[in-house]
Amino acid sequence: MHALTFLKSLVIILTISAVVVFLLQRIRVPSIVGFLLAGILLGPHGFHLLKETETIQVFAEIGVILLLFTIGLEFSLERFLKMRLEVFGIGGLYVLIAITLTALISYQWLGSVSTAVFIGFLVALSSTAIVMKLLSERAELDTLPGRMSLGILIFQDLCVVPFMLFIPIMSGESGVVDLLVTFGKALAIVALVLFSARWIVPKLLHQIVHTKSRELFVITILILCFGIAFLTSEFGLSLALGAFLAGLVISESEYVHEAASAILPFKDSFNGLFFISVGMLMDTGFFLNNLGLVVAFVLGIFLIKFIGGFFSMYLMSRPIRITIHTALNLAQVGEFSFVLAVAGVSAGVISKDVYQGVLSASVLSMLLTPFIIQVAPFISDRMSSFMLLQRMERNRGLRETDMPAEQLKDHVIIIGFGLNGKNLARVLREVNIPYLVMDLNTETVREMRERGEPIRYGDGTRVEALSRLGLKSARILVVVISDAASCRQIVQTARRENPGLFIIARTRYVAEVEALLSLGADSVIPEEFETSIEIFSRVLDHYKIPGKVVSDFVDTIRRDGYRLLRRREISMKSSLPEYQWILSTLNIEKVGIPADSPVTGKSIKELAFRTETGATIIAVERDGRTLTTIDPEFRLESGDIVFVTGNEDDLKRAINYLDPGRPEDTAGEDIGS
């Protein structure tokens, strides 16, 4: 009977969630908002359709574990160490500022130091689940704001452990000694997990994979995920941190991609249940009766977190625009705040009314987050143009005092110095074409300056920054950054300032090509599509489609602004069979040149091949390579395979001319049919 009750609850959850998410998707509202609203409707403070709330919360915890596990899979120890400044430096300052400001304000209201500091703990945490999901959907994880957000979120997740350990001290249940003991256990388990990442788990997975059992591999991954999460929780750490460490462990092995594909279906399913469970916790009666207080609390949270994010990044010399953008990304309260809040209520650190106030404000901040992240690029761009903020930008950070750009003319400007930017700079340096580089990563700028690169620190979306690179005297601008919004703005600004500039923009997706072209880009190179071009070129080459046909496809696609494969009325489905029909009507003969052939060592011109036979040589295969450009001075050699075309009589004469010993009745067995 209990099983049927649970099944009924699960059907209700999935049905209501599907309906709400579907309706909101029609008006382009993110699915996370739909899950939260579904939880509010389903819960005990909504229509009270669910009674098995404990079971749903269990599923929600599984969803958080799987989410943090996949984040760990996409991470690596090497990347973690590279981001140590973002994680520990900026993340630490962010949390410290947020806790301090919240505690000072809360103390004036509540009069209790422990309660005020605990509320600071709750406000200091942002939502890893929401932010990572939204940034991933918007393809912004690899942008500078995305990487900054990730680093701060990781530190916040690490802070859940000490925050939980402080709860017994705040409630008076334990002392500092107990805290130090638990903290020592935490360090020990983290060290053990990191040791396993390097020495144990890769060897274990190697043995599992060699069994060639998909089922065993998936089971092993799940054991590592939930096992390490359980182990860390037994040592006083959070389940989520254990899951992240488990993902980090597997990320060091060569089977990380296989593990990610095995976990993704579980993560997406359970993750929705987490947001539903959060919505179910909210007391709608309390929310409506205290609407003004809740709204004020939400505005206070946004302001505190914005200030904390802004100054933590500004003090670490991060660009103003990126600082504002990242601070807006993290302006909500996190999912782990709910876990802390429940523990705080149980320990008596906060009252139930305070708990409901924090909960209502937190859910509302989560509901607003998708919309804030959507407008964050626009807001950060407008705010960073304020005179005061521009003055703050100029008064700190790297000074742009390199070689004067006015001395350069017809040079190349490169915005972004990742892999593409470095490769381009290397080629330009080899052929002695002058260039200047601009990048927002201070570490990259310092390192490349030491190596002699003409690189400057600056924001390419700013007219002033581009002008310092000699924009009006440059010949080419190449934009190779991951931030799609910034790329569009750079193209628009550069075209407005220099109408004659040739602008090349790199983008990830074909969908962004038309927007960049309309803003003034002369050439847009979508990585997604260039990969597809390479793939179909190799497929057609394997089927012996002539190189000219393949190059025509490529040229047409690029010339048409990559619209060929995105428009239904123009499709390769109709073009390729057409080419195949043309090929099938051609008579193409393949003739090998024997050692005793009279044509060996002679050029096409000397042989007067076309005059003597009437056929045409279209290609020659030599030493495994197919040569398609055959000029009159080309000399035939023993072992060559010659491809000739013509009518049936011409082919017979060509075969007899090239290989007199070959039977004439083999002519006509062409390779085009």
CATH architecture of the largest domain: Up-down Bundle
Instruction: Write down the domain tally.
Output: 4
- How much of the sequence lies in strands comes to 5-15%
Radius of gyration: 32 Å
How is the main sheet built? 6 strands, parallel
Describe this structure in words.
- The protein is 65% helix and 7% strand.
- The strands form 2 sheets. Strands 3-2-1-4-5-6 form a 6-stranded parallel sheet, with helices on both faces. It has a 4-stranded antiparallel sheet with strand order 7-10-8-9.
- The chain starts with a helix and ends in a 15-residue tail after the last helix.
- The model is unreliable at 397-405, 564-576 and 665-673 (pLDDT under 50).
- It is α/β, with parallel strands linked by helices and 673 residues long.
- The protein has 4 domains: 2-46 and 53-387, Na+/H+ antiporter like fold, CATH 1.20.1530.20; 405-507, Rossmann fold (3-Layer(aba) Sandwich), CATH 3.40.50.720; 529-584; 586-666, Regulator of K+ conductance, C-terminal domain (Alpha-Beta Plaits, 2-Layer Sandwich), CATH 3.30.70.1450.
